[in-house]
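@channel anyone free to eyeball this complex?
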Amino acid sequence: MRFEDRTVFITGAGSGIGRATALRVAEDGGFVVATDVDETGGTETVEAVEAIGGEAVFHELDVTDAEAFDAVVETAIGEHGLDAIVNNAGIGHSPADTEDVTEETFERVVDVNVRGVWNGCRAALPHFRARGDGAIVNVGSLASFLGLPKQSVYSLTKGAVMNFTRAIAAEAGRDGVRANAVCPGFVETSLGNMHFESMSNPEKAKAQAEKQYPLGRFAEPEEIADAIAFLLSEEASFITGHGLVVDGGYSVS
Ligand code: NAI
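replying in thread with the prediction:
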């Protein structure tokens, strides 16, 4: 019960990696503040947590809205306390050469993936600093370290998430705050599948991509959630500013 008496705030908790993280934290005794722009998904996550005997509450939240973010964090602190935040919400874009990405796509992806993480850290940090304790996990990607072809804007945002995480770790470590990133390879979620959807034969393309993973398969969302939970927990008490790559060996092969 690593998270007993601890409250973990999760963005993008209505689906994929965010939902798996909510379930992992709840299994280990933590109270989950599940947030998402998608009310249906977020509510389903709370129901899934309750179905395993855990405790969670849902707040609708668009991470790009700083004022709303501050308000939901304030409410969470008032009602449940706040020990950790997982800035997981993120979006991708269809594969495209850099010059073919529209300004609208650029702005939207940067807004959610970069501003959203900034908003989350900015909202939680004063509370964490004041109590001298807090853990932040930002969800990066393999694209935090590798330049992915036809994913240059996504790569730009995930590189930014990684270096922002390092800066927070350096800045707030003396205040008792740890900040880390989890950087997954492909995970079969709605976001992950978007990468293949525009291809002529998505199933064939996926099968070929899977072969490039030394472990011979893609990750399950639960395997990413395990890495996030580890970095949130006391087991990682001396780890900060780290980008934990969870990619079945893809980046070293
Ligand atoms: P997903 O699409 O299953 O879940 C993303 C969630 O974020 C959804 O519930 C969605 O409603 C929510 N969301 C989107 N925009 C939002 C906003 N403005 N405010 C609040 N919530 C918002 O995708 P997945 O795969 O679970 O993605 C989670 C994170 O993992 C993202 O940051 C993504 O970039 C990252 N990631 C995913 C990989 C994959 O292959 N699936 C690989 C590497 C990183």
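from a first look: The chain has a mean pLDDT of 97.
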